Amino acid sequence: MPAIMLDDRQGYTRQYDPFRVTVPFEVFAAERTLRFSISYLPRPVMLSDLVPMANQLSQAIVDATSRRIEESDCRISCQKGCDACCSYMIPISPAEAYRIRNEIYKLPTVEQKTLFRSCQHTARQLIDHKLPGTVFSPTQDQEERLELLSDWYKELKLPCPFLVHHACCIYEFRPLACREYLVTSHPSKCRSESNERSKRVPISVQIAEVLAETCHILEGCESSVLLPLLPAFLQNNSQRSWALYPAETIVSAFLESLADYTQRNFAMVGGESAQ
Ligand code: SF4
Ligand code: SF4
Fold first, then answer.
1. Cys-Cys link to 64, which of 30, 50, 208, 259 (CB 3.0-4.6 A)?
2. Is the C-beta atom of 183 inside 6 A of ligand 1?
3. Would residue 168 count as lying in a domain?
4. 45 lines ligand 1 (CB under 6 A)
5. 160 is in which domain, residue-wise?
6. Which pairs from 249-254 meet CB under 8 Å and 24+ separation?
7. Ligand 2 in contact with 162 (CB < 6 A)?
8. Based on the structure, what is the number of domains in the chain?
9. Rounded to whole angstroms, what are the CA distances from 271 to 26, 35, 39, 167, 274?
10. Is residue 56 part of a domain?
11. Probe target for ligand 1 pocket from 75, 82, 171, 198, with the most ligand atoms within 8 Å of CB
């Protein structure tokens, strides 16, 4: 049973336990209000324990968004086995880095070594390429800088270290950035050599960003790392990755980040009204 669980209906707790605490919350996404609750046992947990719940919440938001798209007679083109986007820049939060490591440690030793070696190989290629000077221009805002970085990364055509024979070998525990990237355009437009830009589906609440902010609140240091730099990140932060926090602190930080994100986004889109 996961340490922190997401219940998909307010007040409904799947696993009865007299000490389990349930906190209801709402997310306004895909033009509707989605109701959830988080339940947890009041005991020390690690940041990585938050990831299965975050993945579940992200999936619920992605599903609601997909349904909304289908209602407007459009179709999401993404499906398992489609890999043209697997050479894009994938930032992951520290919580996801710790979780992916834990999952990789469950694999046979040979596979673990192969995956970490593959990350190191991609990381070395990344380091060999200089960042474009425009990224450092003081006139760029954060969003423009991120877009420049993503375009630069895409141009490098570095396949993700976890892509093996055109399949994601960590699919069940892939990063939120991969889960929350959906398009309605043809997959051929996702190829880096395509002259046309793919048509990305806007997901109104990106749990990848909420989780990164949660980590920032709790750890007080950098909130994301590029996927191929995972082994180096883990090596430099081994103590930090095993830190224990009261479950209540982790859940409060997550809900606080979610509320901040929603408020920022709400202000940016000019205030849609919840129904
Ligand atoms: S983003 Fe493009 S390449 Fe990636 S799964 Fe979707 S359609 Fe396929
Ligand atoms: S983690 Fe998996 S889904 Fe994500 S980019 Fe890598 S291979 Fe693709």
1. 30
2. yes
3. yes
4. no
5. 4-268
6. 249/218, 250/4, 250/45, 250/47, 250/49, 250/50, 250/214, 250/218, 251/4, 251/23, 251/38, 251/40, 253/214, 253/217, 253/218, 254/38, 254/50, 254/54, 254/210, 254/211, 254/214
7. yes
8. 1
9. 16, 20, 30, 40, 9
10. yes
11. 82
* pLDDT (tens place) for every residue of the chain, 275 residues total: 566 787 654 445 555 678 889 999 999 999 899 999 999 989 899 999 999 999 999 999 999 999 999 998 899 999 888 999 999 999 999 999 999 999 999 999 999 999 999 999 999 999 888 777 666 666 767 778 888 888 889 889 999 999 999 999 999 999 999 999 999 999 999 987 888 888 999 999 999 999 999 999 999 987 789 999 999 999 999 899 999 999 999 999 999 999 999 988 876 554 444 33
| Residue 27 near residue 238 (C-beta atoms within 8 A) | no
Probe residue for ligand 2, chosen from 100, 162, 180 as the CB with the greatest number of ligand atoms within 8 Å: 162
275 belongs to a structural domain? no
Cβ contact 247:43 at 8 Å: yes
Task: For residues 2 and 9, give the distance between their C-alpha atoms in angstroms, rounded to a whole number.
Answer: 17
76 pocket-lining for ligand 2 (C-beta < 6 Å): no
